[in-house]
Amino acid sequence: MINLEQMDLILEALPDPAFILSRSGKYVAVFGGRDTRYYHDGTGLIGLYISDVIKPEKANWFLEQIARALESRKLVVEEYELSNRDVKGLDDDGPKDPIWFEGRIQALSFLVDDEEVVLWVASNISERHNLEGKLRELSDTDQLTGLFNRRKLEHDLTLHYESWLRYSIPTSIFMFDLDNLKKINDTKGHHAGDEIIQAVANICRTTIRKADTACRFGGDEFVVALPNTGHEQAMQFAQRLHERIREELRQFSVEGTSVTASIGVTTMLTTDRSYEDTLKRADRALYDAKSLGKDRIVLV
Ligand SMILES: Nc1nc2c(ncn2[C@@H]2O[C@H](COP(=O)(O)OP(=O)(O)OP(=O)(O)O)[C@@H](O)[C@H]2O)c(=O)[nH]1
Protein backbone atom coordinates (compact mmCIF):
# COMPACT_ATOMS: atom_id res chain seq x y z
CA MET A 1 0.00 0.00 0.00
CA ILE A 2 1.06 3.55 -0.64
CA ASN A 3 1.30 5.62 2.50
CA LEU A 4 0.51 9.34 2.89
CA GLU A 5 4.16 10.40 2.62
CA GLN A 6 4.50 8.47 -0.64
CA MET A 7 1.24 9.97 -1.90
CA ASP A 8 2.72 13.46 -1.33
CA LEU A 9 5.80 12.50 -3.35
CA ILE A 10 3.63 11.15 -6.15
CA LEU A 11 1.59 14.36 -6.32
CA GLU A 12 4.79 16.41 -6.39
CA ALA A 13 6.08 14.28 -9.27
CA LEU A 14 3.04 14.99 -11.48
CA PRO A 15 4.43 16.45 -14.72
CA ASP A 16 1.66 19.06 -15.15
CA PRO A 17 0.55 21.44 -12.38
CA ALA A 18 -2.72 20.47 -10.71
CA PHE A 19 -4.55 23.25 -8.87
CA ILE A 20 -7.33 22.86 -6.35
CA LEU A 21 -9.55 25.92 -6.85
CA SER A 22 -12.66 26.91 -4.94
CA ARG A 23 -15.88 28.18 -6.55
CA SER A 24 -14.96 31.75 -5.56
CA GLY A 25 -11.56 31.31 -7.22
CA LYS A 26 -9.28 30.68 -4.23
CA TYR A 27 -6.05 28.76 -4.91
CA VAL A 28 -6.47 26.11 -2.23
CA ALA A 29 -3.49 23.91 -3.19
CA VAL A 30 -1.13 23.17 -6.05
CA PHE A 31 0.63 19.90 -6.84
CA GLY A 32 3.28 18.93 -9.37
CA GLY A 33 4.34 20.98 -12.41
CA ARG A 34 7.87 21.67 -11.18
CA ASP A 35 9.43 21.49 -14.67
CA THR A 36 10.62 25.09 -15.09
CA ARG A 37 11.03 24.62 -18.83
CA TYR A 38 7.23 24.50 -19.09
CA TYR A 39 5.83 25.96 -15.89
CA HIS A 40 6.28 28.60 -13.25
CA ASP A 41 6.23 27.51 -9.63
CA GLY A 42 2.61 28.07 -8.61
CA THR A 43 3.05 27.56 -4.86
CA GLY A 44 3.17 31.35 -4.32
CA LEU A 45 -0.48 31.50 -5.38
CA ILE A 46 -1.83 29.36 -2.54
CA GLY A 47 -4.26 31.34 -0.37
CA LEU A 48 -4.74 34.03 -3.04
CA TYR A 49 -7.81 34.45 -5.24
CA ILE A 50 -7.80 34.38 -9.04
CA SER A 51 -9.12 37.97 -9.01
CA ASP A 52 -6.08 39.01 -6.87
CA VAL A 53 -3.60 37.87 -9.48
CA ILE A 54 -5.27 37.93 -12.91
CA LYS A 55 -6.83 40.87 -14.78
CA PRO A 56 -10.63 41.10 -14.31
CA GLU A 57 -11.74 39.91 -17.78
CA LYS A 58 -9.58 36.80 -17.70
CA ALA A 59 -10.32 36.17 -14.02
CA ASN A 60 -14.05 36.11 -14.82
CA TRP A 61 -13.42 33.58 -17.56
CA PHE A 62 -11.64 31.31 -15.03
CA LEU A 63 -14.55 31.62 -12.59
CA GLU A 64 -17.01 30.73 -15.36
CA GLN A 65 -15.10 27.54 -16.17
CA ILE A 66 -15.02 26.55 -12.49
CA ALA A 67 -18.80 27.10 -12.25
CA ARG A 68 -19.35 25.06 -15.44
CA ALA A 69 -17.38 22.13 -14.03
CA LEU A 70 -19.19 22.33 -10.68
CA GLU A 71 -22.63 22.50 -12.24
CA SER A 72 -22.16 19.89 -14.96
CA ARG A 73 -20.08 17.50 -12.78
CA LYS A 74 -18.44 16.64 -16.12
CA LEU A 75 -14.87 17.16 -17.29
CA VAL A 76 -14.48 20.64 -18.83
CA VAL A 77 -11.62 21.04 -21.34
CA GLU A 78 -10.58 24.53 -22.48
CA GLU A 79 -7.56 26.11 -24.18
CA TYR A 80 -6.28 29.50 -22.99
CA GLU A 81 -3.23 31.72 -23.08
CA LEU A 82 -1.38 33.16 -20.10
CA SER A 83 1.96 34.85 -19.56
CA ASN A 84 3.78 35.30 -16.29
CA ARG A 85 2.95 39.00 -16.64
CA ASP A 86 -0.78 38.11 -16.61
CA VAL A 87 -0.39 36.36 -13.25
CA LYS A 88 1.01 38.25 -10.28
CA GLY A 89 2.44 36.04 -7.51
CA LEU A 90 4.59 33.82 -9.76
CA ASP A 91 8.37 33.78 -9.53
CA ASP A 92 10.48 34.92 -12.51
CA ASP A 93 11.86 31.45 -13.27
CA GLY A 94 10.08 29.47 -15.90
CA PRO A 95 9.15 30.25 -19.50
CA LYS A 96 9.50 33.85 -20.72
CA ASP A 97 7.00 33.73 -23.58
CA PRO A 98 3.23 33.50 -23.13
CA ILE A 99 2.07 29.92 -22.66
CA TRP A 100 -0.91 28.21 -24.25
CA PHE A 101 -2.56 25.83 -21.80
CA GLU A 102 -5.10 23.14 -22.05
CA GLY A 103 -7.05 23.19 -18.79
CA ARG A 104 -8.90 20.06 -17.69
CA ILE A 105 -11.30 20.95 -14.94
CA GLN A 106 -13.16 18.42 -12.82
CA ALA A 107 -15.48 19.00 -9.86
CA LEU A 108 -14.35 17.28 -6.62
CA SER A 109 -16.78 15.62 -4.26
CA PHE A 110 -15.73 17.35 -1.05
CA LEU A 111 -15.74 20.89 0.38
CA VAL A 112 -12.78 22.96 1.55
CA ASP A 113 -13.64 25.63 4.16
CA ASP A 114 -17.32 25.06 3.30
CA GLU A 115 -16.73 25.79 -0.39
CA GLU A 116 -17.03 23.54 -3.42
CA VAL A 117 -13.73 22.87 -5.18
CA VAL A 118 -12.43 21.70 -8.55
CA LEU A 119 -9.24 20.07 -9.75
CA TRP A 120 -7.73 22.18 -12.56
CA VAL A 121 -4.88 20.47 -14.43
CA ALA A 122 -3.04 22.88 -16.73
CA SER A 123 -0.93 21.36 -19.54
CA ASN A 124 1.47 23.43 -21.61
CA ILE A 125 0.36 23.02 -25.25
CA SER A 126 2.30 26.01 -26.69
CA GLU A 127 4.32 23.89 -29.11
CA ARG A 128 1.23 22.22 -30.54
CA HIS A 129 -0.64 25.52 -30.63
CA ASN A 130 2.16 27.33 -32.52
CA LEU A 131 2.46 24.43 -34.94
CA GLU A 132 -1.29 24.53 -35.58
CA GLY A 133 -0.99 28.28 -36.27
CA LYS A 134 1.81 27.70 -38.77
CA LEU A 135 -0.12 24.91 -40.49
CA ARG A 136 -3.19 27.09 -40.72
CA GLU A 137 -1.10 29.87 -42.26
CA LEU A 138 0.45 27.44 -44.75
CA SER A 139 -2.89 26.00 -45.74
CA ASP A 140 -4.18 29.53 -46.49
CA THR A 141 -1.16 30.70 -48.48
CA ASP A 142 -0.08 30.42 -52.09
CA GLN A 143 3.48 29.17 -52.14
CA LEU A 144 4.88 31.19 -55.06
CA THR A 145 3.52 34.60 -54.06
CA GLY A 146 2.76 34.45 -50.34
CA LEU A 147 -0.72 35.81 -51.17
CA PHE A 148 -3.75 33.97 -49.85
CA ASN A 149 -5.05 30.99 -51.82
CA ARG A 150 -8.51 30.14 -53.05
CA ARG A 151 -9.42 28.28 -49.86
CA LYS A 152 -8.90 31.39 -47.72
CA LEU A 153 -10.68 33.61 -50.25
CA GLU A 154 -13.72 31.34 -50.14
CA HIS A 155 -13.64 31.36 -46.34
CA ASP A 156 -13.52 35.19 -46.22
CA LEU A 157 -16.18 35.58 -48.91
CA THR A 158 -18.53 33.34 -46.93
CA LEU A 159 -18.24 35.76 -43.98
CA HIS A 160 -18.59 38.84 -46.21
CA TYR A 161 -21.71 37.40 -47.81
CA GLU A 162 -23.21 36.94 -44.32
CA SER A 163 -22.51 40.62 -43.55
CA TRP A 164 -24.16 41.56 -46.84
CA LEU A 165 -27.27 39.51 -46.03
CA ARG A 166 -27.58 40.60 -42.42
CA TYR A 167 -26.35 44.19 -42.39
CA SER A 168 -26.31 45.19 -46.09
CA ILE A 169 -22.55 45.80 -45.91
CA PRO A 170 -21.41 45.33 -49.50
CA THR A 171 -18.27 43.56 -50.61
CA SER A 172 -16.76 44.23 -54.00
CA ILE A 173 -14.69 41.70 -55.88
CA PHE A 174 -12.31 42.09 -58.69
CA MET A 175 -10.85 39.30 -60.65
CA PHE A 176 -7.91 39.89 -62.96
CA ASP A 177 -5.81 37.88 -65.31
CA LEU A 178 -2.43 38.86 -66.72
CA ASP A 179 -2.21 39.52 -70.44
CA ASN A 180 0.55 38.01 -72.57
CA LEU A 181 2.33 36.08 -69.85
CA LYS A 182 2.69 33.11 -72.19
CA LYS A 183 4.90 35.16 -74.50
CA ILE A 184 7.27 36.01 -71.64
CA ASN A 185 7.36 32.37 -70.53
CA ASP A 186 8.05 31.21 -74.08
CA THR A 187 10.75 33.81 -74.77
CA LYS A 188 12.46 34.32 -71.44
CA GLY A 189 11.59 31.11 -69.62
CA HIS A 190 9.26 30.10 -66.83
CA HIS A 191 11.47 31.72 -64.22
CA ALA A 192 10.85 35.17 -65.76
CA GLY A 193 7.11 34.42 -65.72
CA ASP A 194 7.35 33.51 -62.02
CA GLU A 195 9.11 36.81 -61.32
CA ILE A 196 6.26 38.71 -62.96
CA ILE A 197 3.64 36.83 -60.93
CA GLN A 198 5.60 37.68 -57.77
CA ALA A 199 5.87 41.35 -58.80
CA VAL A 200 2.07 41.45 -59.26
CA ALA A 201 1.61 39.92 -55.82
CA ASN A 202 3.79 42.68 -54.35
CA ILE A 203 1.73 45.33 -56.09
CA CYS A 204 -1.44 43.77 -54.60
CA ARG A 205 0.12 43.66 -51.14
CA THR A 206 1.15 47.30 -51.19
CA THR A 207 -2.14 48.52 -52.69
CA ILE A 208 -4.76 46.76 -50.59
CA ARG A 209 -6.04 47.54 -47.10
CA LYS A 210 -5.61 45.21 -44.14
CA ALA A 211 -9.17 43.91 -44.28
CA ASP A 212 -8.98 43.06 -48.01
CA THR A 213 -8.17 39.56 -49.20
CA ALA A 214 -5.79 39.32 -52.15
CA CYS A 215 -5.58 35.82 -53.50
CA ARG A 216 -3.83 34.00 -56.32
CA PHE A 217 -6.79 32.19 -57.79
CA GLY A 218 -4.65 29.98 -60.00
CA GLY A 219 -2.04 30.36 -62.77
CA ASP A 220 -1.91 34.03 -63.73
CA GLU A 221 -5.33 34.81 -62.28
CA PHE A 222 -5.92 36.83 -59.10
CA VAL A 223 -8.94 37.83 -57.03
CA VAL A 224 -9.19 40.66 -54.52
CA ALA A 225 -12.14 40.86 -52.13
CA LEU A 226 -12.86 44.32 -50.73
CA PRO A 227 -15.22 44.18 -47.75
CA ASN A 228 -17.30 47.24 -46.92
CA THR A 229 -16.66 48.66 -50.38
CA GLY A 230 -19.23 49.78 -52.95
CA HIS A 231 -19.06 49.96 -56.75
CA GLU A 232 -17.48 53.38 -57.09
CA GLN A 233 -14.70 52.84 -54.56
CA ALA A 234 -13.93 49.41 -56.03
CA MET A 235 -13.60 50.95 -59.48
CA GLN A 236 -11.17 53.59 -58.19
CA PHE A 237 -9.16 50.87 -56.53
CA ALA A 238 -9.12 48.72 -59.68
CA GLN A 239 -7.91 51.70 -61.70
CA ARG A 240 -5.07 52.30 -59.28
CA LEU A 241 -4.01 48.66 -59.40
CA HIS A 242 -4.34 48.51 -63.19
CA GLU A 243 -2.12 51.56 -63.60
CA ARG A 244 0.53 50.25 -61.20
CA ILE A 245 0.65 46.87 -62.93
CA ARG A 246 1.05 48.56 -66.30
CA GLU A 247 3.86 50.82 -65.03
CA GLU A 248 5.78 48.27 -63.01
CA LEU A 249 5.61 45.42 -65.52
CA ARG A 250 6.82 47.58 -68.40
CA GLN A 251 10.37 46.55 -67.50
CA PHE A 252 9.57 42.93 -68.41
CA SER A 253 8.51 43.74 -72.01
CA VAL A 254 9.59 41.43 -74.81
CA GLU A 255 9.66 42.62 -78.43
CA GLY A 256 7.21 45.40 -77.71
CA THR A 257 4.79 43.10 -75.84
CA SER A 258 4.31 43.85 -72.19
CA VAL A 259 2.37 42.11 -69.49
CA THR A 260 -0.73 44.02 -68.46
CA ALA A 261 -3.91 43.10 -66.60
CA SER A 262 -7.52 42.60 -67.65
CA ILE A 263 -9.84 43.24 -64.73
CA GLY A 264 -13.48 42.40 -64.02
CA VAL A 265 -15.11 44.31 -61.16
CA THR A 266 -18.42 43.74 -59.41
CA THR A 267 -20.21 44.25 -56.11
CA MET A 268 -22.56 41.93 -54.18
CA LEU A 269 -26.19 42.31 -55.28
CA THR A 270 -29.40 41.51 -53.42
CA THR A 271 -30.14 38.93 -56.11
CA ASP A 272 -26.91 37.00 -55.36
CA ARG A 273 -27.80 33.69 -53.73
CA SER A 274 -24.24 33.17 -52.53
CA TYR A 275 -20.78 34.72 -52.92
CA GLU A 276 -20.32 32.34 -55.85
CA ASP A 277 -22.83 34.36 -57.88
CA THR A 278 -20.74 37.48 -57.26
CA LEU A 279 -17.57 35.65 -58.18
CA LYS A 280 -19.14 34.33 -61.40
CA ARG A 281 -20.15 37.86 -62.38
CA ALA A 282 -16.59 39.09 -61.82
CA ASP A 283 -15.38 36.21 -63.98
CA ARG A 284 -17.78 37.19 -66.77
CA ALA A 285 -16.62 40.82 -66.55
CA LEU A 286 -13.02 39.63 -66.80
CA TYR A 287 -13.93 37.55 -69.86
CA ASP A 288 -15.48 40.67 -71.43
CA ALA A 289 -12.33 42.68 -70.66
CA LYS A 290 -10.27 40.06 -72.52
CA SER A 291 -12.70 39.93 -75.46
CA LEU A 292 -12.71 43.71 -75.80
CA GLY A 293 -8.93 43.69 -76.36
CA LYS A 294 -7.29 43.11 -72.92
CA ASP A 295 -5.52 45.67 -70.71
CA ARG A 296 -8.77 47.21 -69.46
CA ILE A 297 -11.32 47.18 -66.66
CA VAL A 298 -14.93 46.08 -67.06
CA LEU A 299 -17.36 46.93 -64.29
CA VAL A 300 -20.66 45.06 -64.05
N1 LIG B 1 5.89 31.31 -65.05
C1 LIG B 1 4.69 30.92 -64.72
N2 LIG B 1 3.72 30.88 -65.64
C2 LIG B 1 2.51 30.48 -65.29
C3 LIG B 1 2.20 30.10 -63.97
N3 LIG B 1 0.89 29.77 -63.93
C4 LIG B 1 0.41 29.93 -65.19
N4 LIG B 1 1.38 30.38 -66.01
C5 LIG B 1 1.30 30.65 -67.44
O1 LIG B 1 0.37 31.68 -67.67
C6 LIG B 1 -0.16 31.50 -68.95
C7 LIG B 1 -1.65 31.58 -68.80
O2 LIG B 1 -2.29 31.27 -70.00
P1 LIG B 1 -3.00 32.39 -70.82
O3 LIG B 1 -3.81 33.26 -69.90
O4 LIG B 1 -3.70 31.74 -71.97
O5 LIG B 1 -1.73 33.19 -71.36
P2 LIG B 1 -1.61 34.69 -71.67
O6 LIG B 1 -0.43 34.88 -72.55
O7 LIG B 1 -1.59 35.46 -70.41
O8 LIG B 1 -2.93 34.92 -72.50
P3 LIG B 1 -4.01 36.07 -72.33
O9 LIG B 1 -4.57 35.92 -70.96
O10 LIG B 1 -5.05 35.78 -73.38
O11 LIG B 1 -3.32 37.35 -72.54
C8 LIG B 1 0.32 30.13 -69.48
O12 LIG B 1 1.39 30.31 -70.37
C9 LIG B 1 0.81 29.47 -68.21
O13 LIG B 1 1.89 28.58 -68.45
C10 LIG B 1 3.25 30.13 -63.02
O14 LIG B 1 3.08 29.80 -61.83
N5 LIG B 1 4.47 30.55 -63.42
Automatic annotation (TrEMBL):
It catalyses: 2 GTP = 3',3'-c-di-GMP + 2 diphosphate. Pfam families: GGDEF (PF00990). NCBIfam families: GGDEF. This is diguanylate cyclase. CDD domains: GGDEF. SMART domains: GGDEF. Its EC number is 2.7.7.65. It is an enzyme of class 2 (transferase). It comes from the Bacteria. It comes from Herminiimonas contaminans. Residues 169-300 form the GGDEF domain. InterPro entries: Diguanylate_Cyclase (IPR050469), GGDEF_dom (IPR000160), Nucleotide_cyclase (IPR029787), PAS-like_dom_sf (IPR035965), Rev_trsase/Diguanyl_cyclase (IPR043128).
